[in-house]
Amino acid sequence: MTTQQATEKLAPDLAERMNAWWRAANFLSVGQIYLLDNPLLREKLTLAHVKPRLLGHWGTTPGLNFIYVHLNRLIRQTDASVLFIAGPGHGAPGVVASTYLEGTYSELYPDVSQDEEGLAKLFRQFSFPGGIPSHAAPETPGSIHEGGELGYSLSHAYGAVLDNPELIVACVVGDGEAETGPLATSWHGNKFLNPANDGAVLPILHLNGYKIANPTVLARIPHEELKALFEGYGYAPIFVEGEEPEPMHQAMAAALDEAYAAIRANQKAAREGMEERPRWPMIILRSPKGWTGPKTVDGKKAEGFWRSHQVPFSDMSKPEHLTLLEDWLKSYRPEELFDEAGRLRADLLALSPEGDRRMSANPHANGGVLRRPLRLPDFADYAVAVPQPGGVELESTFVMGTFLRDVMKENDASRNFRVFGPDETASNRLQALFEVTDRAWDAERFSYDDHLARDGRVMEMLSEHMCQGWLEGYLLTGRHGLFSCYEAFIHIVDSMFNQHAKWLKSSREVEWRRPISSLNYLLTSHVWRQDHNGFSHQDPGFIDHVVNKKADIVRVYLPPDANTLLCVTDHCLRSWNRVNVIVAGKQPAPQWLDIDAAIRHCAQGIGIWEWASTDGDGEPDVVLACAGDVPTLETLAAADLLRDFFPELKVRVINVVDLMTLQPHSEHPHGLSDTDFDALFTRDKPVIFAYHGYPWLIHRLAYRRTNHDNMHVRGYVEEGSTTTPFDMVVRNRLDRFHLVIDVLDRVPALASKVHARQALRDKLNEHSRYIRAHGVDLPEVREWKWSGSK
Amino acid sequence: MTTQQATEKLAPDLAERMNAWWRAANFLSVGQIYLLDNPLLREKLTLAHVKPRLLGHWGTTPGLNFIYVHLNRLIRQTDASVLFIAGPGHGAPGVVASTYLEGTYSELYPDVSQDEEGLAKLFRQFSFPGGIPSHAAPETPGSIHEGGELGYSLSHAYGAVLDNPELIVACVVGDGEAETGPLATSWHGNKFLNPANDGAVLPILHLNGYKIANPTVLARIPHEELKALFEGYGYAPIFVEGEEPEPMHQAMAAALDEAYAAIRANQKAAREGMEERPRWPMIILRSPKGWTGPKTVDGKKAEGFWRSHQVPFSDMSKPEHLTLLEDWLKSYRPEELFDEAGRLRADLLALSPEGDRRMSANPHANGGVLRRPLRLPDFADYAVAVPQPGGVELESTFVMGTFLRDVMKENDASRNFRVFGPDETASNRLQALFEVTDRAWDAERFSYDDHLARDGRVMEMLSEHMCQGWLEGYLLTGRHGLFSCYEAFIHIVDSMFNQHAKWLKSSREVEWRRPISSLNYLLTSHVWRQDHNGFSHQDPGFIDHVVNKKADIVRVYLPPDANTLLCVTDHCLRSWNRVNVIVAGKQPAPQWLDIDAAIRHCAQGIGIWEWASTDGDGEPDVVLACAGDVPTLETLAAADLLRDFFPELKVRVINVVDLMTLQPHSEHPHGLSDTDFDALFTRDKPVIFAYHGYPWLIHRLAYRRTNHDNMHVRGYVEEGSTTTPFDMVVRNRLDRFHLVIDVLDRVPALASKVHARQALRDKLNEHSRYIRAHGVDLPEVREWKWSGSK
């Protein structure tokens, strides 16, 4: 497509009106960045009309406005349901201007009305205290994507269209964002899309050539390389390049018509049975940065250069800058665009689609409106029989998988549940899912492939970024999901978690946003069982990262066995507007609670395990607390040892499922009251706390508690290697022997038990010698059973 | 290149010997995974010879061995200096086998000798307690890259060749790894390489088709798409595809010769003045997963399928598996490969390069050997004159930039210092660097470009992953650098930091590894000054993430002004084997310490600011502590207010530069002794601590200190928006007024000061009204000056 060929696409009148709409959007964008008052320039512009602090980004804005008006034309012509994602950072002046022009903004924020007064408010609120941010955000109508941290627009887009066969997501990818890793791999999303049952993504790569102070890579490679790159990614790129508005309007209209036709043709073919992966269209729009802005500022190149990135000129003490601003604003001829009252001219208003067809009012962008709760089978039906604690060994996540399988089956008709993970669903023992669905795959398939299918509902790509981005896009458009990941590598998406948690917090402050399903993580293959992998795979710090976010948003669960895992999973799948982190092992491990006990325990989130305690109804001599499956095992083994060594010692065993119970109630809604906490942990007895992760997190949560000074926490202290499971806990002093030594060190009555201490030290030495000789753990450790189950 | 065309590349004898070497490497790889003893199969294989726990990854290994022997042939033929990076996870059986065959392994680990006994040790130690991990690691000779978390091989490779004009890094990229975001963008590293002064990267994309349980994307797209993708990335791909060893040897040899010739031709042209970016060669090697392994296991496809990913069969209780293992091992005909003593046949040994030319002995892979300290100008020469505290305002990072400029200049001849950052060097006020160098750029350049040059030493790409990967590769090969980043977005590389910190910890335990330069972060554009950006750009949690790693490795500095920043920067650039995090603002801010005071303060890392305190030599009534530039400003303003309100009150002001001083000395080498801590913070007086980041971190560091229960910490609590600088601190209650209220709440003598409290509340209300009306902070806040500087 060249601009030449396309000159007849739009009738002159329509082209003219679209250009006027674009001028209006650009005018409103500049106004938001610069003006405090005098929104229609009906008075001579003075410094008093200009904001005292000029903040915002002009560079990407005119391009976004250009794309917006063209998408509106396409929607009006085809009645397509289109969602708009503005990938470029700081595109808010444009997105807000366009959503205002089509009326949605004023419907949601009546104060920002369709008149001169509303215009003044629109301008004033932008990047102003108490106002709105300079990038698309939860406050922005039609947005499911914050243009703050870059890299996730396209994975959000691909997540949004899953199971939305009629939806098209027009995803503008900035050429800055395109340099990020997450974005660079997300082009491959087209190999995981089912054209028969999913919608389509139309990527619009916007080459405006510059980042903050640099050119962009993709704008500075030859045309043939650029074309090859995107053909290699599996797309059919359509180029729209230039800077003269008239031919650019014609070219863009032609490009969109061509792309739309290709999308519908691909979908039709697939829906009629065609099996091959289609070549999806994309648009490469090359237009000047800061298009229609000042050509030069202070004699230096501005339009089409990085100097247009933010505010092209901001030192308003120079009188010539005030003139430049007024000339720039007037170049859009606002008097032709807005009527006397300050309302957009009716024939321009008519360019917008109507009602829900406006991209800013598309219900998919406020996913909570469309969200229906999952149909959940009774999780108790999947319970493991546990006749006595520790009497059964099995893989907890396998049991969870059987529940997830039936969640998948129960919701098959509504197609609103998917499971995500980087090639690890089976490795994480969730393979029961493959009894009812497959892995989504639309690249080449062979007869011997294992559970690969176009309409698979398990999304696996070796990119945690992609899994997270897909899931966020899926949730934000009103569906449900779960992301299972190796614990250490979930840090790859630390910053994506941050942004999603911030989105959720801000959303709660936006009245018209409806709650969306929680983002659920299952972290498995955790720090304590890295038999194949070693030190590089050992990091339990995601929990520490998560708890820095607002208490309203985050939950952390450490179910010690399969039945508690079932209970927690059910709870998380029912919740909304949260991030739930579940940590659970995938290796065979002893089971402690039957389903009734599990339900009771999870309802409290924390509790005394009386069957493992020897303190009766009185005060214990020592509290053994634990959180996490491996620490629970070691704690119970320590309790067993203590019973053998010191039958008189009164030991209380506490297990924590819901980590947030440890925080003060004033800090977290799940936090125990101080009275309840003291009743559990005592006010003055030693507490030996075996924790799954970095030990100081327990101190950070509990430092205000009465008995905090007596809490001694064991956890992962960055000691690890490729070794046996028991050696891992020994290296970090979380093992049963060290825990008992800790008790000896802290219970005054035991201070003199020199023999016991020596016996424990001997045992640790025996362990070291044994694993070096045999490569496996001591038989007595491997075969240990809780005394109650013997 | 097709296998057909290349049949004559290798003389038959050479091809035969290379294949024998490959068989030997494969044999040793299988041996490492399976065998405990009987390494040369000189006895009938029994279960007693097999490891009790079978751990390891076979799938990628034969491909790595194949590439290794071919690179050796190329090195012998050309005498090139080649470094080997094994991107695929868990490639250790192969890399270790190859480095053993060329003798390096036994030189570094004499116990693992070149004889039958050494072979038994080699096998036994693999994935065995006290042994070595299953992926390339610091223990692995010749490695600068841990094949644990995937995605960083190619950015490491590009970092390693910078300023090493003769070096070639042969970088094997697994097709699993190729799906990650960081890897997908790192192909663009070729646009930042200077062919005249940097070395070359030869990427070898190894398509073995499968991940853990899935095919890979790049192995399942048509040949034409694959070719287009890499041509689009700017490479000239050479394909080597097949599974029959003989033609594959011929094809691989031809491909390597072709690639090598292209590299040298590109370099020659550039070094003779050619300006255009060359098209660099790469190799796409398509070979079966688990090549030469069992075709089927238990009737199921194994070779060429994902079932070969780890241990192809591990249930050794089945007698047929023992037979299968023996047959497999014997298929390599070890009796033809090793002599009576168990040493590789001499004519095969002769295939390895000699001395430092062995990839496993290349000194670049043990960068500390090559590392020379930086020439550093005296940082005091860049000091800001501070006649009285608070008397001068300027941008601290700008001052740091002038120092970095001269560090760059002083080391220009040795070409061993670079600065990295995602398009933010100037935005972060380090623009003085551009007085002496440019941004590296080998894509298209235009006359109006700003400081872009092929030989620029500032590396900017909008990918934090790429910046981090480049820098790691640069440091690991013995050079120096600094990464400047927006504070919030450094979380993008949380997991890369993890892996690097783990690498450093493990390296310290490897006797032959020499120390490398520290990885230095400058985090700026920090949480408190996001005027353009708002909530999504506010996250100070990287510090929390960092302090979870081993105390030996991590340091965190919060210099409050320019002179302390200079002092800290100098210190960090001199250090080794650490990760240093420096947090400092880029906005104009008051300066507190002259250079002599700054040097004294930084030497202690923490100290009383007597000029700001009113406690004389006695005990204070209250301690105001602060860490970070904005908290320091607010603390001093609070001290000023307290002096006005309560002239009798004895206030002590403590500033913390080195955060690790707060930890107990037993936990961190920089930690203060309890005596020193108590002398500063008192044993019982209220402490109001204004901290840059999440407040609970201070509690986590200081919870064991005597006076901890009286410490009240203010910091960032996830409250933010697009607003004024002062409103940001108000929203998080870190502002001067809230700090004074905190003092009122905690100093018993002030409990009755109702008027003061009301005056402060009034002030906060006035602030709110004022910013909403004017969009800027109260004049008295904007114009506040420390009383000593008035």
Task: Describe the protein's architecture and organization.
Two copies of one chain form a homodimer. Chain A has 790 residues and is of the alpha/beta class. The first copy, chain A, has three domains: 2-362, Thiamin diphosphate (ThDP)-binding fold, Pyr/PP domains (Rossmann fold, 3-Layer(aba) Sandwich), CATH 3.40.50; 379-589, 3-Layer(aba) Sandwich (Rossmann fold); 606-789, Rossmann fold, CATH 3.40.50.920. Chain A is built from 25 helices and 22 strands. In chain A, the strands form six sheets. Chain A has a six-stranded parallel β-sheet, with helices on both faces. In chain A, strand 19, helix 19 and strand 20 (651-656) form a beta-alpha-beta unit. The first copy, chain A, is elongated and about 95 Å long. The model of chain A is unreliable at 1-6 (pLDDT under 50). At the A-B interface, helix 7, helix 8, helix 14, helix 15 and helix 21 of A face helix 7, helix 8, helix 14, helix 15 and helix 21 of B.
